[in-house]
Amino acid sequence: MPKITIAFVGLGGIASQAHLPAIKELGFNVDLCVDVDEYKVKSFIEKTGCKGYSDYREMLKNENPDVVLVATPNAFHARIAIDALENGAHVYIEKPMSVSSEEALKIVETMRSRDRFAVVGHNGRFDYRSSTAAKFIHRGNIGRIYYARGFILRQRGIPPAPTFIKRDLAKGGAVYDIASHAVDMLLYLSGYPKPVGVKGFVYRAFGERIEEFGMNYPQPPQPGMVSEVEDFGSAYISFENNITMYVEVSWASYVKENRMEYVILGDRGGIQIDNSGLSYMTSVEREFLIATPPSIPHVNSHKEAWRRFLTAIERND
User: Fold this and answer.
1) Under 8 Å between Cβ of 258 and 157
2) How many CB atoms are located within 10 Å of the residue 288 CB?
3) Gfo/Idh/MocA-like oxidoreductase N-terminal domain: from which residue to which, for each copy (predicted)?
4) Which CATH architecture fits 128-291?
5) Is 164 exposed, middle or buried (0-12, 13-18, 19+ CB in 10 A)?
6) How far is CA 67 from CA 62, 116, 151, 308, in A?
7) What is the pTM of this model?
8) Domain boundary assignment for the chain
9) Is the domain 6-121+301-315 a CATH 3.30.450.40 member?
10) Helix, strand or coil for residue 8?
11) In tens digits, what is the pLDDT along the chain, a chain of 317 residues?
């Protein structure tokens, strides 16, 4: 693969702990790094030797990156992605893609007009369970799909950082953070049916109780912290061909255990992905059968997402 110049815009935990190790394992490095926090820029320079900037616009003006990772607070995703695309770069956008449908459509419009690639960081697709389930479903093994559901539920998991809990930066809470993953996964597994309606609900129940309901990432909860965004969300989504989906997510809730679960139901079988693995349910000569893989290989989903993205750029497909 020819030399690809990679720029990271936003140098927080997801950039340093997930994206940087992923591209390094693939034999790439960060050439340009941008953050408003000078300490983070200095730290990245020490780790990677990248050329540092405090303003992404200055970086785009002076440099010509082939790929830009957008890992800033949610409020800035669309503007940076569009500017990078206009500058001729391919973009990898951390979820959520944007904070409005108008912004999302503008990103797609710019990507197409500039003939560039833009991907969103839903790395969960590249987990072994998810990719195996998708192959199985898309080959018709569960028949006609009629229902899907997705849960990502935490007991005490409010991320105690301004980039997650301050409305001007995050624009939303658990819905943008984890429901974006759940909805993407269900759409991916079910083959992207066309939505026709949605009814959703959000709740901010524990915003003043972060010391009790906060997680230790990206930092331990601090006294007096307050979350301005929702910590629970649910939605019913209806699609063409009489397909229904239900999504439920929480950063904090009085549930028995932390839970991740995706279920796709068809008239010839069902698929379930959860904390314990992957299961396939069907009937054989009228007997109910449950099948599971003998083992679940570990896949670095961030690495696999980057590998496919960079390969697509190289092949222009």
Assistant:
1) yes
2) 8
3) 4-122
4) 2-Layer Sandwich (3.30)
5) buried
6) 15, 10, 33, 13
7) 0.95
8) 6-121+301-315, 128-291
9) no
10) strand
11) 668 999 999 999 999 999 999 999 999 999 999 999 999 999 999 999 999 999 999 999 999 999 999 999 999 999 999 999 999 999 999 999 999 999 999 999 999 999 999 999 999 999 999 999 999 999 999 999 999 999 999 999 999 999 999 999 999 999 999 999 999 999 999 999 999 999 999 999 999 999 999 999 888 899 999 999 999 999 999 999 999 999 999 999 999 999 999 999 999 999 999 998 999 999 999 999 999 988 888 889 999 999 999 999 999 87
- What is the amino acid identity at position 220? P
**Edge to edge, what strands does the sheet with 287-291 contain?**
195-203, 232-239, 243-250, 145-153, 259-266, 270-274, 277-284, 287-291
CA atoms within 13 A on the CB side of 288: 3
Taking the C-alpha atoms of residue 69 and residue 80, their distance in angstroms, rounded to an integer, is 10
| CA-based nearest residue to 159, from 92, 108, 87, 207 | 207
* Residue 43 phi, psi (nearest 5): -65, -40
Which uninterrupted H or E stretch holds 294? none
Beta-strand pair 243-250/270-274: unpaired
> Greatest CA span in the chain, whole angstroms?
67
